[in-house]
Amino acid sequence: PPSRIDLGAGDVVALQGARYRIDEVEQGTALQLEAVRVEPGVYRPAPAVEEGGGLPGFAVPAPVAAVFLDLPLMTGQEDPNAPHLAVAARPWPGNVAVYSAVEDAGYRLDTVVEAGAVLGMTETPLAAAAPGRWDRGAPLRVRMVGGTLASAEPAALLAGANAMAIGDGSPDGWEVFQFAEAVLVAPQTWALTTRLRGQLGTDATMPTEWPAGSRVVLLDGRPVQIALGPEARGLEHHYRIGPGSRPPEDPAYRHLVASFAGAGWRPYAPVHLHAVRKGADLALSWVRRTRIEGDGWAGLDVPLGEVQELYLVRVLVGETVLREATVTAPAWTYSAGQQAADGVSPPFAVAVAQVSDRVGPGPFRRIEIHG
Asked: Rounded to an integer, what distance in angstroms lies between the CA atom of residue 260 and that of residue 360?
């Protein structure tokens, strides 16, 4: 070997089949080099471009569209504490990283999203409709990004196909519906008809009308759940969501602040409220529903899904609560003595909610008493 090595900063040397650019040389009892691996293409001149044309093949990443959805259980295999996250971007950056923190500092990687979701916005309003039957009302026109929509046979819908969430973009209050027919009426715009409304217990969150400009998310498995333990339920967290190839401080990241109630734990609202006079007493009954395994027909009843069967009953005049009671069976009698003590006479209302030991009362179902 030579007795002297004459190397300086900026030189490029080959070592084990790779090339390295020397950035610093320190001469002592030993020769110490600091170098960075480089490729020959770095030194090739860039293709000529027209003035103002920019570099070919390069695009500054744009912020992703990101929507949190605190949804009920869909398959029963989800984490009931954790919300879903739907993200879309043009172009898709390969993957999207989700960082979280309790304040806008000290972020840690929460989730990596590998596939973009199909997001959109409604261009027409969607009026409320009865759950459990086909909604054949006016077409819902939606403009989507990140994918396409397609029609499905009724049997496929009953097996879970073409589920979509509609909401105002905040984490809570989403309605889940399904559509059988999707007709392309303009670029990236579909008219959705023959719908099943208020699925998965979201009939309780269905407003009188979803206005034009509401957000929609196709629930095809691409929205993913983030990590959220039960101790964090209801607590506000900060999230930075952006291209996984860039750090969370990059301008391409979107900063969101949100908290989640854990809709997967929320009981469904009871149904079939019935009231009958027995003398001066008022006897009420209802039918409970379940948030888990409610499609089976083999058992005598659907699973309870809670630690215990418990209901909260309220007597109301307008929105004023006159009386509350808790019962452990789907029935309650409002006695003549209680009515006299409350000073109530028709018309008034009775509302009933099933109670979860984790999140308290679920949505109330209300019956008006006129006689």
From this structure: 15
Tell me how far apart the 2 most distant CA atoms of the chain are, in Å: 115
Q: Is-contact 155 103, C-beta < 8 A?
A: no
In this predicted structure, the answer to whether residue 167 has a pLDDT above a threshold of 90 is yes
Let me know if 96 is exposed, middle or buried by CB neighbors in 10 A (0-12, 13-18, 19+).
buried
202 within 8 A of 218, measured Cβ to Cβ:
no
Determine phi and psi for 60, rounding to 5 degrees.
-70, 125
Report helix, strand or coil for 83: coil
Say how far apart CA 193 and CA 140 lie, in whole Å.
Answer: 7
Query: From residue 263, how far is each of 72, 94, 359, 361 by CA, in Å?
Result: 5, 30, 9, 12
CA-to-CA distance for 139 and 233, rounded, in angstroms?
37
Distance CA(330)–CA(354), nearest Å, equals: 9
Predicted TM-score of the model (pTM): 0.81
Q: d(Cα 316, Cα 369) in Å, to the nearest integer?
A: 10
How far does Cα 324 stand from its chain's mean position? 33
Q: Which of 17-21, 152-156, 309-313, 352-356 has the lowest mean pLDDT?
A: 17-21
Q: Residue 68 and residue 236: Cα distance in Å, rounded?
A: 13
Asked if 157 and 141 touch (Cβ cutoff 8 Å), the reply is: no
Beta carbons of 195 and 129 less than 8 angstroms apart: yes
Quick one: tokens of 165?
A: 């969430």
Rounded distance, CA 324 to CA 313, Å? 6
Structure tokens at 173: 């209050």
Give the three-class secondary structure for 209: strand
| Residue 344: partners with Cβ closer than 8 Å, 6 or more residues away | 315, 317, 322
Q: What is the pLDDT of residues 222-270, one digit of tens each?
A: 999 999 999 999 999 999 999 999 999 999 999 999 999 999 999 999 9
Contact between residue 19 and residue 32 where contact means Cβ atoms under 8 Å apart? no
- The DSSP letter of residue 251 is T
Separation CA 144–CA 2 (nearest Å): 68
Which residue is it, tokens 């929460």? 110
